[in-house]
Amino acid sequence: MTGELLVFIVLFLITITGGLLMLNLTKVIHMMMALVLTFLGIAGFYIMLSAEFVAVVQILIYSGAITIIMLFGIMLTKHTEAEPKTGWAKKGVVFTGIVLFFLIMFKGIRTISLGPQADDLHVNNTEQIGIMLYTDYVIPFELVSVVLLVALVGAVVLAKKDEKDEKEGEQS
């Protein structure tokens, strides 16, 4: 067994364990910590693929910022203790969907052809991403920033609306 295969198996187990824990835990905060474990396993896969920049972004953005935002959202919203129980039929459908997704992705990855430039993908990949992002994809990049701004403004408007509704309910 080669070292690369051993690292892959360890990262696979970390990622799958995090995903399964996230789906099966009952406390939302514990689910978020399991999600962080999954994100870190995925970052390890990026490092194995010589995509160090994407791995660092995965850790900073997903394992850090997105998780913190989700935790704040969870802590600032009201929750009821009663959680619906899922039956075996629903779990079977979900498991079947997961297996089908895995098989389709496995087949797609096995038959993909990256072309003649695939050998140079790991050389200066951060520079290549920057050049491509700010030349070929500058319009989609700016549109994403506008969408994020609209989402932020919408969240503020919804938060103010809920605040106003609570004040009206208290006065009644």
Automatic annotation (TrEMBL):
Looking at the record's lineage, which domain of life comes first? Bacteria
- Look up the coiled coil feature and give its residue ranges: none
* Catalytic activity of the protein: a quinone + NADH + 5 H(+)(in) = a quinol + NAD(+) + 4 H(+)(out)
**Sorted alphabetically, which InterPro entries does this protein's record hold?**
NADH_UbQ/plastoQ_OxRdtase_su6 (IPR001457), Nuo/plastoQ_OxRdtase_6_NuoJ (IPR042106)
- Enzyme Commission number(s): 7.1.1.-
Compartment annotation: Cell membrane
> Any one cellular component term from GO for this entry?
plasma membrane
Q: Name one GO molecular function term.
A: quinone binding
Q: Name one Pfam family in it.
A: Oxidored_q3
Membrane topology type: Multi-pass membrane protein
Arranged from A to Z, the UniProt key words for this protein are: Cell membrane, Membrane, NAD, Quinone, Transmembrane, Transmembrane helix
Membrane spanning stretches: 6-25, 32-49, 55-76, 88-106, 137-159
Q: Which family does it belong to?
A: Belongs to the complex I subunit 6 family.
Give a short account of what the protein does.
NDH-1 shuttles electrons from NADH, via FMN and iron-sulfur (Fe-S) centers, to quinones in the respiratory chain. Couples the redox reaction to proton translocation (for every two electrons transferred, four hydrogen ions are translocated across the cytoplasmic membrane), and thus conserves the redox energy in a proton gradient.
Could you tell me what this protein is called? Answer: NADH-quinone oxidoreductase subunit J
